């Protein structure tokens, strides 16, 4: 819970410092990843996965992909949401997904599933 508050505070601070305009995150030494909020409904996760995969290549979360996990929709949706966010230039507005996402500042990669981060 504390991590979510810190992340939200960081987003608010960046929003305020950008004078109300969406700003591009230009991370050099650290990363920003878009992930699903804990507690997001299965219906919304599926909607996010479908939307992201209609815009970008989601082979990594397809059968045989390194992030394919049919029993864990949360992880698959998070990977797809992050792929979309990275492909669109890491603007905070590209990690909205109807309010069901957040920006992570620690790499959410796990096992052989590596979350993309474009420098």
Automatic annotation (TrEMBL):
Signal sequence extent: 1-19
Gene3D superfamilies associated with the record: 1.20.58.1040
Protein's UniProt keywords contain Membrane: yes
Keywords for this protein: Glycoprotein, GPI-anchor, Lipoprotein, Membrane, Signal
Subcellular localization: Cell membrane
Residues in X8 domain copies: 32-115
PANTHER family: BETA-1,3 GLUCANASE (PTHR31044), CARBOHYDRATE-BINDING X8 DOMAIN SUPERFAMILY PROTEIN (PTHR31044:SF111)
Record protein name field: Glucan endo-1,3-beta-glucosidase-like isoform X1
Organism: Camelina sativa (False flax)
Gene label: LOC104782897
């Amino acid at each position: 819970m504390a991590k979510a508050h810190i992340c939200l505070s960081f987003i608010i601070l960046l929003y305020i410092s950008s004078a109300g305009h969406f700003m591009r995150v230009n991370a050099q030494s650290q990363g920003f990843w878009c992930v699903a909020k804990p507690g997001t409904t299965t219906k919304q996760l599926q909607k996010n996965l479908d939307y992201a995969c209609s815009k970008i290549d989601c082979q990594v979360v397809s059968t045989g992909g390194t992030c394919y996990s049919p029993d864990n929709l949360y992880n698959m949706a998070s990977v797809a949401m992050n792929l979309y966010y990275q492909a669109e230039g890491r603007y905070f507005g590209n990690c909205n997904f109807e309010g069901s996402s957040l920006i992570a500042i620690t790499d959410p990669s796990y096992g052989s599933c590596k979350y993309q981060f474009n420098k």
